[in-house]
Every structure is written in structure tokens, then in C-alpha cells.
Amino acid sequence: MIALKAKDRSALEYLYDHYAGAMLGVISRIIKKEELAEEILQDVFLKVWDKIGSYDQTKGRLFTWMLNIARNQAIDKTRSKEFSKDKKTGDIDNFVDRINTEGFVEQRVEVIGLLQLLKELPDDQRFIIDQHYLKGYTQAEISEEFNLPLGTVKTRMRLAMKVLRKLLVE
Amino acid sequence: MNVEAYISSGILESYAQGELSEQERLEVENNLRAYPELRKELSMIEDVQEALLQKAAQQPRASVKLDLFAKIDAGLPVTKVVPLPVTTTSATNWKLAVAAAVTIALISSYLAYDYRDKWIKTQGSLTQLIAQNQRVAQDYNQVNQRLNQLETDLNILNNPAFERIVMTGRPNTPNALASVYWNKSSQEVYLSIQDMKTLTAEKQYQLWAIIDGKPVDAGVFDGSFTGLLKMKNITSGASTFAVTIEPKGGSKTPSLETMQVAGNVIKG
Fold this sequence. Notes:
The structure holds two protein chains of two kinds. By secondary structure, chain A is mostly helical. Chain A has helices spanning 2-5, 9-30, 34-51, 62-79, 92-101, 105-118, 123-134, 139-145, 150-169.
């Protein structure tokens, strides 16, 4: 972290090697076009490099900070004039298909593993996690799109995250 | 504040997902500072989120990284530039003027250098072109001369007044071959070589016409010309033409043992 703040290039490289994949995942759930998504990924890392001085550890993880930059950059792009309207990646099957056809075998295994894991969740909670983390909808969008009160979405999200904590982290 | 209820509301998840309004976000940040339990909880949520997103990662192509770091490397010096402190307006103007002057000077020097460079290159190209042009002109002259020669030769070959006498090789020179074109009325003699070996520098070929059984000198030649070679005039009455090898400059009488080719005039 200190190295990164001191603008150590190799620190950024480390960051890229560990987080670029997750960030591109987030971006490409909002921006379908691969090339455009990769362009945004570059912008995200340029912004991280530029704004690293303003990152405050007490407010959350670096990953979370970057995640929000990535999401905002991608959403900004969808609002820009040049961007056509078809933004969401479609359903999870398409997601798996796409990765499959593009030959990311390793990643496919990861995603299948993830889907297996999500089966542990009750249907209503899995739905929320799927919509948010795998399809890129915000909680507010889920609430609006599926006619669920925002409070319900929040509670299910909260419960799902608690279950996943046991499965993923502990 | 009831920390339990606060956590249960799911607001920390929304915070980690970046979904809060500016006001809500600031509020959560204040609470995070105040309640260590909240920080612990947030950290757990972030763990889950990170693990989920790492599993749903999509690796960019390798070129993206190369390109990104190329951009960053190109941008590195820029981020290290310290802006000049702004003092008074007049000083700023003065600095701007100096900066402009320096910029113009730099651009001018560069352009001058650039044009000089281009000029030198152009000079070089011009010299080269002139030389090339001379070479082409020389080649043209040579070709032209050769063409004239060929036209003359062709006129002789086409002229029915010229008789062709084919001189074939002798037993010791079976492959040698040459021809004489002889105009009996004008007495002109031309020689063409089809196949004669090259001689040493001290030797030359000599053409003979046999008139009334006696050899008459028709001139010497080297074996290395193409086309037709004009020889000495020969009066009518020659029955045979032959070529011998003689010392350079030729002999008065032929060394018959060195005869290379010979051919009889067809009586007409």
C-alpha cells in the first residue's frame, strides 16, 4: 500500500495481476463489448494510479475502492452518447456459455464452482446474489425490475452474504 | 446507536457495493470510525464480496496490460512535474512571454534544422539523379551505336549482291565456323564469326582469299567481335576463303598448318 502511494510501478503491477480479472468481470457485466470493457479496465487502473493518494484505508478495502471506481466508470460509459443501449450480459447461462466458447477453461471451472456454491443459498437469496454479482444489477435496479421492496432486497442480500461468509471465507 | 440493528439493515452491504447516496455514505464512514464492530463487520462483507468477484473474474487479454503500462510509463514524468508557484500577475505574464519566446525559438531551431536536413538530403538525391541520368545517356548512345551497326549489318545480309561463303572447321578444329560476305562487283568483304576460339595476345587470325591458287591477304582480326567486320577488298576470281592463325599483325604468306576454317565460293 505504501509502495503504491509512493507511485511504485511494480506495486500497481501487483495490483493489476491480482485484481484486473475481478474488475473486468464487474465491468463486462455492465459493458458487454469485450474491447470496450477492456478499455474501461485500463481507465480504471489509470484512475487508481492517479487517485491513489486519495484512498483512505479507514473507509474500506482497496479492492472495494477499486470496485466502486470500476463500476462507476462502466456506468458512466453506459450513459455516454456513444454507448448503445444493450448493456446487460443476459442471464447466467449466457455468461457461462460466453466464457466457455472463449476458451477460458480455468475461469469456467471457477464460475461453475461458484454456481455450485450458490446452490447452498435459498432461492430468493441466490436470486439477489446472482442478479447483483453475476449480472451487474444494483440493489435499486433489482428492486425496480422485479417489483421487490428495496428493504426486502437489502435483507436478502444481508442474509445471503452471511451464509456466503461461512462458505467462502471461514 | 443499536449496532446490531444497524448491521441487520444491510446498510454495510450497500456501502461496500457503492450504492449509497453521498449523505448516507458519509454517515456510514462516521459510524465506522465510532464503532469498531462495524469495521469488523464491513471487513467480513468485503471478504465475501472480494471472494465472489474473484470467482467471477474474467481475465483481460495480455495486450491490455502491456498497453496500460505503456500508458503509465509514458505518463510517469508528467505526474512528477511540480507546478510553478503563481506569484504576481505581471510576473506570470513575464514568465508566459519567456515561455512563449523559448517555445518559438525551440520550434524555429527545430524547423531550421529539419529544413537543412531535408535540403542536404535533396542535394544528395539531385547529384545521384544527375549521375544516373548521365549513365542512362551513355547506355542509350551505346545501344544506339549498336543498333546502327546492326542496321548496317542487316543491309549487307539482305543485299543480294553479297554472296555468303560459309567457312567450316578443319579436321583439327571441327567446331570452328565463320562466314564471309563478298560483293563481287564492289569487291567488299565482310566477315562474321559463328564460333572461333579466343587467341593469345601475340596471335591474330588472318583471312585469306585464294585467287588462281595463290593466297591473297584479306586482313587480320581478333576472335572477339560480334556482327560483321569489314575486311580488305578482294577482286573477283577468288575461289576459296580461309582463316589461319598468324603472329599479331599478320603474315605475307599463310601458315597453312594453322588453318582454322575454309570455304569455297560457289561458282555462279
